[in-house]
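agent> fetching stored inputs for the 2-phosphoglycolic acid docking request
agent> found them:
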Amino acid sequence: MRRKIVAGNWKMNTSLSEGLKLAEEVKNDAEKGIPEGVSLVVAPPFTHLAGVKEILAGSIGLSAQNCATDDSGAFTGEVSAKMIASAGAEYVIIGHSERRMFFRESDTELNKKVKIALANDLTPIFCCGENLHEREKGIYKEIVRNQIELGITGLTEDDFVKVIIAYEPVWAIGTGKTATPGQAQEMHAFIRDLIKSLYNAETASMTSILYGGSCKPSNAREIFENSDVDGGLIGGASLNAGDFLAIARSF
Ligand code: PGA
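agent> prediction call returned; pasting tokens
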């Protein structure tokens, strides 16, 4: 059985003290119970990782939002997968559309990041998704296929089984506009088929594919009900512990 995962991407939000408080709230609320088989993950900014780790103490997964392509060296301002792992994180988001768009991260670079994350025992949460123009032109499947094929190039089956995919249509991120359950299911099934063609049916059925893009307590249930949707990567709504947990309880 593949894992159900609800991951909160805090993006560039919260001061350290606000972030620690939010982690505390998430932990306390989660202790009241979440559906069996659902894993929670939070992805705070780099500066908060070690502090949040102390609060979560293993009960909730910890993720970074990005990593460098190298382990160490003269790369001013970068943070490596090795450092992230040493701060206690188990996951790292790679290829978020904001990284692709604002920081011009290329598929080649993202492929390096996936590999270095795996080499440091971090689980990559690999993001893909088309923008509005690509959706309207009807080329969204091609776009997502390319992003995935290039992002995971060279990964053996043993490597790939550790990867989580997040499908996040760019036109739905932070816009309040969510993909319909039908649109989400169509793309998740497409991605699962693609994984089957790249690896095999078993690997495809074991891969968790998360949906992201204006997911909130009011729409999470209808999205999560789809057979190929295994959870969510939550932006805005993850900044409120009550909303984040309500989404997790939509399963
Ligand atoms: P959103 O962000 O939930 O605020 O739309 C999702 C994401 O970017 O991961």
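agent> quick read of the result: The pocket of 2-phosphoglycolic acid is lined by residues 9, 168, 173-174, 212-215, 233-237 (CB under 6 Å).
agent> awaiting further instructions
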